[in-house]
């Protein structure tokens, strides 16, 4: 598929050539298309009807209809189909919406650049990551940057990788810190490797397993596990480890995304779980946990930064990526401080 601008120009020129009119799209857009009208189109499609969009934008429905009509006149094509359920974008409308999303994102990035040039100590960066990375590596990056830029706001969006990728493609986040999505091939994305995260099976210090010097993975199959959902990075590592030993996936007694919830259950001595080793470098607290001496090695999970190609990186997002590279080097060399599980 052609990029938005080339696609729109091609369709428009084809339409004009059929109608026998001169092809002056750039001039017509420069004189007639308004960002406000583009914003109205996006609001109408998101709301599902012109009346609902008018309420959201606090304006009259006639003003909404006028903006849509101006856009359709400028491009010479129908952008919306009307039906009993409301409105739906046509093929031309979807192409314009794709371009509109990029236009408004570029404007937001430009405003951020100007704000940063005016005062490099303020601003906001939006980072997508899962719950584990938010509690460990990403928090470590935030701490480093806060020392230099105490007025910067760090907004963390915590979801699983598929949801995070949708947020990135919709330009709702600046970047992702995530495991590499090997099963997802998308030419719109850039991936930069940071470090390989190792995993260990962990129990509470009060657990009888904590006193064992050598443990076979098969011995732990029927133990009460507390795990995140199977589709998570930790769930994938768990499945790979048991599969490599010819074992079925353990039946979890508790399934939760909460890091603190898992740690609280482990501290009772009645549960076991799997954690990435990096988390113990950043999560301080009493030594209530013990890495078990299980023979079976666990899969290494590559963690990196995922960004959109052909999207201008904001200055603060660039600083975040640089700080992530620095911290990853320290992790690789084993120089990071923090609480370690004994």
Number of helical stretches of at least 4 residues:
13
Q: Could you spell the SSE succession in H and E letters?
A: HHHHHEEHEHHEHEEEEHEHEHEEH
CATH topology of the largest domain: D-Maltodextrin-Binding Protein, domain 2
Strand order of the largest sheet: 4-3-5-12-6
Question: What top-tier CATH class of the largest domain fits best?
Answer: Alpha Beta
Largest sheet: 5 strands, mixed
In the predicted model, the low-confidence regions spanning at least 5 consecutive residues are: 1-23, 335-342
Strand portion, in percent? 15-25%
Helix % is: 40-55%
What count of structural domains?
3
Cα Rg: 26 Å
- What is the number of strand segments? 12
Summarize the topology:
Layout: H1 4-19, H2 25-32, H3 35-47, H4 50-57, H5 61-75, E1 80-83, E2 86-89, H6 91-118, E3 122-129, H7 131-135, H8 137-148, E4 151-158, H9 161-169, E5 175-179, E6 189-197, E7 199-204, E8 225-227, H10 233-244, E9 252-255, H11 259-267, E10 272-276, H12 279-282, E11 289-291, E12 301-308, H13 315-333
Parallel strand pairs: 3-4, 3-5, 8-9
Antiparallel strand pairs: 1-2, 5-12, 6-12, 7-10, 7-11
